[in-house]
């Protein structure tokens, strides 16, 4: 016998017939269940021990109703999310169910799903004049104009940027951190434009603001930096700009910040590819004043415009070189600056827009002349380029090649000592950290190749053997200097927020010194080298909280040590 009455059974003999309502009860109607319409309560409501309502009004949704709706949304979003992943579509918009979480929410946040972002990519039209590439001379002298394509700012970008105060907060943090070591954007021009009520901001400026937010963003535990929502939105936005033929200096600056982020967070091969993109785009803009190019941007209108273009191009060169320093596969081009080409002006004059205080120095000037941190970074770039050229001079006689390397080591050492003196006297030691570290990287790079020549090379000429001794001594000397540099960086970053002012360009030098000291420890068990190695590891570990490339370098050191320990144990 059933424990529950059968709603379809007829009345039992001798019993009065059950009275029926004119319509199904509210609960059955909402759940789309068959109702027996029994009065005073239907069988289902009686079984569930709940109030049975036959009224026509619709009651307010209950907590249970919201949970049921949310579960259905999560199921639907899961299906759509799987479909979007198969189709390679972006997923960054918040969903209705995710918005239910929070202080008044009903549970943990559901996985986010983003509907396909088709709107920005619909009806894309690229009207960029091909003559700029097919016949640059005719393009320039014919004064062919480049139309600015109409682009709607993607919704996810607007959402990530937030309101006006949020954008302003991003700018304040950017100019107080990233800008101090990589000053390519004119704060003066940007401030003046934003205060002008007649000025209209375009999509390229929204991209720049987004990339500024990306540059100041910090790694999150458990989330790959390549999965950063701001990063993915920036990459899509850059691709949209490229697809529509948008060519502005602001777009280049934005993607340069993307490349800096990719290098700092060790996102490869993206950093390598983005650096090459910036070189090509800079050529397209015509800001590579060292060589002829199509002047797509036209002539600069003011001194600030001219200096901003120059600084942006120097930024392109520096980033392109640093992203490949570890692989030593830098692609040498004909765009190396000449001796008479100008360096960036003084950083303070640049920030203030004071042309009268902007003394211009050239690439071939005396490196002992006092200059600001960013021109120093450019000088370190020049030195590193000379090192790469020396290494690639395979057809040079050994005597000539080694002599050039020795002279180059002395020149770089002079620059390193000068920057060290300037950093010690500066109010902010970290402002000189990037040029100092890149100079140390150049010294390590010039020595590393000659410190480990093959046996055939050593026996072939006495110059090779002598150069090996000199290179080993040079590595030990520069490694000691880098250890001192690491200790000063630690002292200058006592608080977690201080790490935001450290440039990611310093990591290669720290790793090079650590690898050299680890080698010395393995060779002779030197106690001083072991202490130096621990100091460098400590510095990389701290910086790894801000820049993941430091953590990657540290992981490489640990892997090398493990491999050596296993090999030693196996040979015992």
UniProtKB/TrEMBL annotation:
Main location: nucleus
Keyword Transcription recorded: yes
Pfam families: Fungal_trans (PF04082), Zn_clus (PF00172)
GO process annotations (BP): DNA-templated transcription
Record GO terms (molecular function): DNA binding; DNA-binding transcription factor activity, RNA polymerase II-specific; zinc ion binding
PROSITE patterns documented for this protein: ZN2_CY6_FUNGAL_1, ZN2_CY6_FUNGAL_2
GO CC terms, sorted: nucleus
Listed transmembrane segments: none
Chain positions covered by the region annotation Disordered: 86-109
Domain Zn(2)-C6 fungal-type per the UniProt entry, residue ranges: 24-54
InterPro entries: TF_fung, XnlR_reg_dom, Zn2-C6_fun-type_DNA-bd_sf, Zn2Cys6_DnaBD
Protein name (record): Fungal specific transcription factor-containing protein
Organism name: Coleophoma cylindrospora
């Amino acid at each position: 016998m059933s424990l529950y009455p059968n709603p379809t059974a007829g009345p039992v003999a001798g019993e009065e017939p059950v009275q029926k309502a004119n319509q199904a009860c509210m609960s059955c109607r909402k759940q789309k269940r068959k109702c027996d319409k029994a009065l005073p309560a239907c069988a289902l409501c009686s079984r569930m021990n709940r109030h049975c309502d036959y009224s026509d009004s619709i009651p307010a949704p209950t907590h249970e109703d919201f949970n049921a709706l949310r579960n259905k949304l999560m199921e639907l979003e899961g299906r759509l999310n799987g479909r979007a992943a198969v189709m390679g579509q972006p997923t960054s918009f918040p969903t209705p169910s995710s918005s239910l979480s929070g202080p008044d929410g009903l549970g943990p946040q559901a996985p986010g799903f983003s509907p396909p972002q088709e709107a920005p990519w619909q009806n894309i039209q690229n009207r960029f004049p091909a003559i700029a590439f097919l016949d640059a001379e005719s393009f320039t002298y014919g004064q062919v104009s480049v139309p600015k394509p109409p682009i709607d700012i993607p919704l996810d970008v607007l959402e990530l940027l937030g309101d006006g105060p949020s954008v302003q907060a991003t700018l304040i943090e950017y100019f107080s951190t990233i800008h101090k070591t990589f000053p390519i954007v004119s704060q003066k021009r940007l401030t003046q434009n934003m205060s002008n009520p007649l000025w209209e901001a375009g999509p390229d400026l929204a991209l720049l603001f987004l990339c500024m937010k990306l540059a100041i963003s910090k790694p999150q535990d458990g989330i790959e930096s390549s999965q950063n929502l701001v990063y993915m939105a920036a990459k899509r936005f850059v691709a949209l700009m490229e697809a529509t033929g948008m060519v502005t200096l602001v777009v280049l600056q934005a993607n340069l910040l993307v490349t800096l982020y990719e290098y700092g967070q060790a996102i490869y091969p993206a950093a390598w590819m983005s650096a090459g993109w910036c070189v090509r785009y800079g050529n397209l803009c015509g800001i590579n004043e060292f060589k002829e190019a199509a002047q797509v941007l036209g002539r600069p209108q003011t001194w600030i415009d001219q200096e901003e273009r120059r600084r942006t191009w120097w930024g392109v060169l520096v980033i392109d070189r640093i992203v490949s320093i570890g692989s030593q596969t830098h692609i040498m081009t004909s765009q190396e600056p000449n001796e008479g080409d100008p360096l960036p002006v003084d950083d303070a004059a640049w920030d203030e827009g004071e042309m009268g205080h902007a003394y211009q120095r050239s690439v071939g000037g005396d490196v002992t002349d006092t200059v600001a941190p960013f021109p120093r970074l450019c000088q370190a770039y020049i030195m590193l380029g000379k090192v790469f050229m020396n290494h690639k001079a395979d057809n040079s006689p050994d005597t000539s090649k080694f002599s050039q390397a020795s002279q180059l080591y002395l020149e770089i050492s002079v620059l390193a000592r000068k920057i060290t003196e300037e950093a010690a006297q500066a109010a902010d030691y970290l402002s000189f950290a990037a040029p100092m570290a890149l100079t140390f990287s150049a010294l390590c790079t010039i020595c590393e190749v000659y410190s480990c020549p093959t046996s055939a090379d050593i026996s072939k000429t006495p110059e090779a053997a002598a150069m090996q001794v000199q290179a080993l001594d040079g590595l030990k000397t520069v490694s000691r200097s880098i250890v001192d540099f690491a200790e000063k960086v630690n002292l200058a970053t006592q608080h977690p927020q201080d790490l935001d002012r450290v440039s990611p360009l310093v990591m290669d030098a720290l790793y090079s010194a650590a690898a050299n000291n680890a080698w010395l420890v393995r060779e002779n068990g030197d106690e001083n080298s072991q202490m130096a190695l621990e100091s460098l590891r400590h510095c990389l570990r701290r910086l790894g909280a801000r820049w993941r490339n430091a953590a990657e370098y540290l992981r490489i050191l640990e892997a090398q040590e493990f491999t050596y320990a296993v090999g030693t144990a196996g040979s015992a």
